[in-house]
Write a structure and sequence with these properties.
GMP Synthetase, Chain A, domain 3, 46% helix, globular
Length: 104
């Protein structure tokens, strides 16, 4: 039998990770952008996101490998627009205006 004192029903490790994301301005939109970009490209190690924080706003600059640029932009910019929409929604959930710039 185990002692009741040794049993910890609360797993604080997960909560601490979630709090770290939410403490950073634009943390959720940044995490969403990284996830989406790495899911789309052929070279996920080349994905880099730079963050510029403003007043109640965050600008995320996405860098990908040159060969993956077409995948991220898509035909007529449809993939890029979808990425921007999802990241903007993640920012709204955090109360931040999030915008995405795709950089060479």
């Amino acid at each position: 039998m185990t002692d009741v004192e040794d049993f910890d029903d609360n797993d604080d490790d997960f909560d601490d990770d979630a709090d770290d994301i939410n403490r950073i301005v634009g943390g959720l939109p940044r995490t969403v952008l990284i996830y989406l970009a790495k899911s789309i490209v052929d070279d996920p190690e080349a994905v880099v996101v730079e963050t510029d924080e403003g007043r109640n706003a965050v600008t995320l600059r996405l860098h990908v490998a040159p060969g993956d640029m077409g995948r991220v932009i898509g035909r007529r910019g449809r993939v890029a627009q979808a990425i921007r929409t999802v990241v903007r929604a993640a920012g709204a959930k955090e109360g931040v205006n999030a915008s995405v710039d795709i950089v060479d």
